[in-house]
Amino acid sequence: MENLFDKQMNKATVFQNKDIISPHYIPQKLPFREKQIDVITQGLSAVIHNSKPNNVFIYGKVGSGKTATVKHVLDHLEEFVKKNNLSSKHCYINCRSHESKYKVLLKALRTFYPEKDFLGYSSSFVYEKLLEYATTKKAHLILVLDEIDKVKDIDELAYSLSRGNDELQGGSITMIGISNNLIFKEKLDPRTKSSLCERELVFNPYNASELMQILSERCVTAFKPNAVTQGAISLASAIAAQESGDARTAVMLMQRAGEIADGEGVDSVTDVHIEKAKASVEEEIIISMISTLPQQQQLVLYAIAQLTLQKRGIRKVSGEIEEGVLYSGEIFETYLDLAKKFGERTITSRWYRQYINELEMYGLIFVTNSGKGIKGQTRLIKLGFDAGKIKAALEKELLKLVN
Ligand SMILES: Nc1ncnc2c1ncn2[C@@H]1O[C@H](COP(=O)(O)OP(=O)(O)OP(=O)(O)O)[C@@H](O)[C@H]1O
Ligand SMILES: [Mg+2]
After folding, report:
1. Closest residue CA from atom 18 of ligand 1
2. pLDDT in tens, 249-288
3. What 8-state DSSP symbol labels residue 11?
4. Phi then psi for 5, rounded to 5 degrees?
5. Ligand 1 centroid – CA 64 distance (Å)
6. Per-residue pLDDT tens for 296-334?
7. Are residues 185 and 42 in the same domain?
8. pLDDT, tens digit, 9 for 90 and up, residues 349-359
9. 44, 102, 350, 399: which is deepest, by most CB within 10 A?
């Protein structure tokens, strides 16, 4: 009998190296990020001259290459530091999994002392130990805080690190904060803001033609020769450009389209496969986007999803029912109830409006001003995607609050 895996092994595929088109892969070349690479490299090159680099705050929308770019520069730094025997170390921390000052410091310490386990030690011990490491080794430590907006006590973390720095005799600690959250910076304590944002760097979204070049380059090594049509690349780029210039969407569309083509047993990926991939990728992207929203904004979105499912819509003066449409005011009321239920502090109506604007910008909701046919002047809000799916995704996220 034929072995099950022999059969898999002999299956035809459009891929040459599928990993290269995975969203987790960091390509050697990052087109259109030359300037950002240069700024980060220049900043970090202070360590070559044995001085402390400035802290940097990096901001840019989802999929604009922030994580890939920073990791790329750090790889080069690590290689250089090793080759030249310099005393500098870095630690990449995804704050989505290390969402407090304590967890961030612990993660850093474990990276610098890989042989020891510090779990269970107090926050101040972990902090002192980190300073001790920098001092005794006279090391310049670089902490990359990716998705920094997820750190609950960011003001305390930033304050401790910058105060620690002042105390250090030789060695230093530098923060590179990365975020795709527009309003995160505005909410920071002024002291945190001025220390974290010594330098700022913006990543603009990619346009369709930039995405096309990015995709083409990655497809050359990810797929077999001639296995991807130009039409497929153009369509994937156009779709991703609409999705706020997100390279991750482009890469995911291409990867999924390749899988679909393999499933059909054909030897090239066309625009038809991209169309099919779009539906399946879209859902995945929405769910991952929801997980990156701040908790309060998740609660606002949850209120919208819940009301959408409960209500029949609003009645126009004509008597007609407009389905799925909600009043801004009723969402805010529901949000307040939900926040109470989850034991969260509540935001003011000014922040609420800001969150609504952002949700609209992300394409999660549509906002219009009530015009003719509706009594009074108010903002009307409609969910951009299936309410049931959004609610389910949010429940998974918000459960973390109760646990
Ligand atoms: N210039 C580029 N060239 C090639 N691939 C890129 C480029 N920019 C981004 N990518 C790819 O797009 C995907 C998303 O990039 P990345 O993870 O760096 O985005 P991000 O800005 O950190 O997004 P988020 O805010 O969601 O964390 C990755 O697969 C990355 O390799
Ligand atoms: Mg990122």
Report:
1. 65
2. 999 999 999 999 999 999 999 999 999 999 888 778 788 8
3. S
4. -80, -25
5. 5
6. 999 999 999 999 999 877 777 777 777 889 999 999 999
7. yes
8. 999 999 999 99
9. 44
